[in-house]
Amino acid sequence: MTILASLRAFLGVRFALGLVVLVGILMGLTGAVASAHVPTTDGTSVIRQEGTLVRYRLELDYDTLTQVTGLGKLPVETGDAEHEAFLAQGREKVTPYVTERLVVEHDGVACAAKLDGTGIVKRQNFLYARLHLVYTCPSAASGQYTVRYGVFAESHAIGSDHMNVVDYVLGGVGGSDVFEGAHRELRVGERSAAAAGVPESPGAGFLSSMGRFVGLGLEHILLGLDHVLFLVLLLLGAQSWRGVIRLATAFTVAHSVTLALAVLGWVDIPGAVVEPLIAASIVYVAVETIVRGESRYRTVIVFAFGLLHGLGFAGALSFTDDFGGGLIGALLSFNVGIELGQVLVVLLVFPLLLLARRHSWSSRAHITAAAIVGVIGLFWFVERLLLTPAGAA
Questions:
Q1: Is the alpha carbon torsion for 293, 31, 158, 183 positive or negative?
Q2: Cα separation, 69 vs 99, whole angstroms
């Protein structure tokens, strides 16, 4: 063997070992994140004011609620009837936990709270506890309503990843909002601007809440590494900006359709089915990118896989069953956030790929990148097949 051949063999071994190490590091860094790119827990709130009464329908992750209230956790094989009975029997523990952490005020005066009933509901094969709360306020219906949401707060060892989508009608004002992170207070009514001491322009509350949904969509796609890597693979195979626009459009239309259908409750496919298929879509596109680049059928393939990713986007958080303008606005805003994230990824990555293609090493780098992403996708596929999502019934 010549010295040159020996050197090439040595470099080839080092390249292979480096690739293995890099894949291992990336899987370690991204495996847990991508397997759980949805909030730790989510839920919904439907708030309706009727005279001096405020009816509040709260839905929360069932297992988390029973654990933080001290009821414990039932076996996975427990049926729906047993889950419902277990929750009803634990009302003495559930009531103080919820009413102390979910406060409704009218003109600065707390409304008396009581738990009027319990039940369960399933969405995408996840089990939620449904709590019917009634708040009796001391004065007339007009005025300012304030809702302070402290359920599953960080101080209760749940973490700040809990989100709760709100659909409200209070004081004659209706809209949507989301309790998450540091935003855990909703103010609605005539005195909301006066109480803050600053004039509030019409529609400011609406714009603020819609901005939060845009932020959630943006955060979801950027932190959902499986979606990002799928986009990167599409960019690796694309040959021009025209191709990028065509593929991005197909992906956008497809995931927008299934996102809307899932949020509106017209399509309900368990995450245990959707998540492994999303990982499989990464593996497929990675292999295709390595073997033949951008095929003439890629637009159709991307559209089909976009339908899957839309169902994954819908799993980011639950929306209420009450179909209305607020829900449509929240859905559109969330989708806008996803599109902004997608555009950001394209504008950051594709120009760099075009620059790299001017160099002789770009072909090897192209194949290496696709191979790394494909291996990560395969790892996620196996992981998601073996692991049952938390909260799934």
A1: negative
A2: 12
Q: Are 65 and 45 in contact (CB under 8 A)?
A: no
3-state secondary structure (DSSP) of residue 384: helix
220: Cα within 13 Å, side-chain hemisphere: 26
Residue 216: closest CA among 156, 281, 263, 264: 263
Three-class secondary structure of residue 189 per DSSP: strand
Residues linked to residue 115 through DSSP beta bridges, in sequence order = 133
Question: pLDDT 10s digit of each residue in the chain, 393 long?
Answer: 555 444 444 434 444 444 444 444 444 444 444 443 445 678 889 999 998 999 999 999 999 999 999 998 888 888 999 999 999 999 999 999 999 999 999 999 999 999 999 999 987 678 899 999 999 998 766 788 999 999 987 555 454 578 888 989 888 888 888 888 788 999 987 654 444 444 444 455 567 777 888 888 888 888 888 889 999 998 988 888 998 999 999 999 999 999 888 877 788 787 788 889 999 999 999 998 888 766 678 889 999 999 999 888 876 666 666 656 667 777 888 889 999 999 999 999 999 998 888 888 888 888 999 999 999 999 999 988 886 544 444
**What are the residues whose beta carbons fall under 8 Å from the beta carbon of 158, sequence distance 6 or more?**
40, 41, 64, 68, 152
At residue 55, the 3 state secondary structure works out as: strand
Strand partners, 174: 169
Q: What angle do CA 220, 232, 214 make, to 5 degrees?
A: 25
Cα angle for residues 78, 83, 86 (degrees, 5° grid): 120
* Residue 312 CB burial class (10 angstroms; 0-12, 13-18, ≥19): buried
Name the token pair of 219. Answer: 């955060």
pTM over 0.90: no
Q: Phi, psi (5° rounding) for residue 149? A: -110, 115
Q: Label the pairing between strands 112-123 and 42-50.
A: unpaired
